[in-house]
Amino acid sequence: MGGYQDVQRLAPMAVLGAFRRDPLELFADVARAPAGIAETSAFGRRMVFITHPDHVVHVLRDNHRNYTKDAPVYRVARPFLGDGLTVSPGGEEWLRRRRLVQPAFGRSTVEDAARVTEECLAEVAGRWATTDTVDASAEMSALSMRFACRILFGTELTAEAAALVEDLRLICDHVANFLARPFPPLAVPTPANLRFRAAMRRVRATVAELVADPRTELISRLTADGGSTREQVTDEVLGLFFAGHETLGHTLAWCWQLLAGHPAAAARLHAELDDVLGDRRPASADLPRLVYTRQVVDEAMRLYPVVWIMMRRAVGDDTIGGHRIGAGSLVTWSPYAGNRHPDVWQRPDDFWPERFADEAGRGAAYHRNSVVPFGLGPRACPGSNLATIQACLTVATLARHVRGTPPPGAAVAPVPSITLRPAGPVPLHLAGG
């Protein structure tokens, strides 16, 4: 490629307007540019848009030491998430806390969590088998909330769960709206800001109360660490709770929406489950043989990555795709656009789960890091293995009992809040499987 002068330049006000109207299309427009890289000015800095998976791998893994999370998309979230692993800029304190958290996602914890997942799913499957219609989005949100509460906190939050879901939704939407319209500041007591801060207080108070009475290895480990204050432990657990509930719930909602709209893929899934399981209920030990089930989950995460926007700040000068990245520049990208890159994927907008086993589904630029739903490099999500097990178990268990078809006109658009969620209900007509 050429030099820095070849980068597509975007007018700041045009970018702001496009981000407000349709941020997913903004990133798609950059991906269609010859170099797949563009620049503008934002937040008082030069901002560089990248789209190709190779460029993302460079930032997250190959030269990760040059890129920090000290960037607006994470700073805006810190009033809620504090300074936990999810939004921490990095450095020695981040590394120390990462080493505390990582062992809590070891084999024994994952096995226990899989058992909890199976128990929760058995109850949902029984109810779905006698139900005509459900909102898959609401159902999966409630289910992922239950997973997170039992696995992280060792308890049920039956009474508080609905309120927590609503507060988390309000917080996510407010942060996303502020990124698009960063005025007035969050500290100004507007009605919207006051609702945001009240929701934050309620969620943090609930988590802090659970941290004060640790019932799981993870919280006990963090609480026992002499280098962490109670507030820091709350930050850490809140980040894990948010990630575990919000991302898994939306991913599962997209799985059901896609399967309901693609009966051939649903039929292939059911055939695999019949072949591998017979009349048995699936368990985590069955997952290595449920190849197509995993491909369904992977394809849903490719098409609708819940973490749809990422950002880093360059510490020093660098070069990406032949283009200079100056120190202090903000580098941003959208997995939603990158996961549909035409150089990487054949039929990039199609739901085609078997593409992961069929070279016909991949372009010449495909490599195993073309989809990184849990991040990459040292900052990859520590709970990625558990999240994948939960998603696959959920699809396999519920598909054994129900077959969903969407009501007429039920196409659901994505909403790019802090996470990428369905714009409204995901209605499914159910029939006993």
TrEMBL record:
Keyword Cell wall biogenesis/degradation in annotation: no
Entry keyword S-adenosyl-L-methionine: no
GO molecular function: heme binding; iron ion binding; monooxygenase activity; oxidoreductase activity, acting on paired donors, with incorporation or reduction of molecular oxygen
Residues that hold heme according to the record: C381
Top-level taxon of origin: Bacteria
Pfam families: p450
SUPFAM superfamilies: Cytochrome P450
Protein name in the entry: Cytochrome P450
Provenance organism: Paractinoplanes brasiliensis
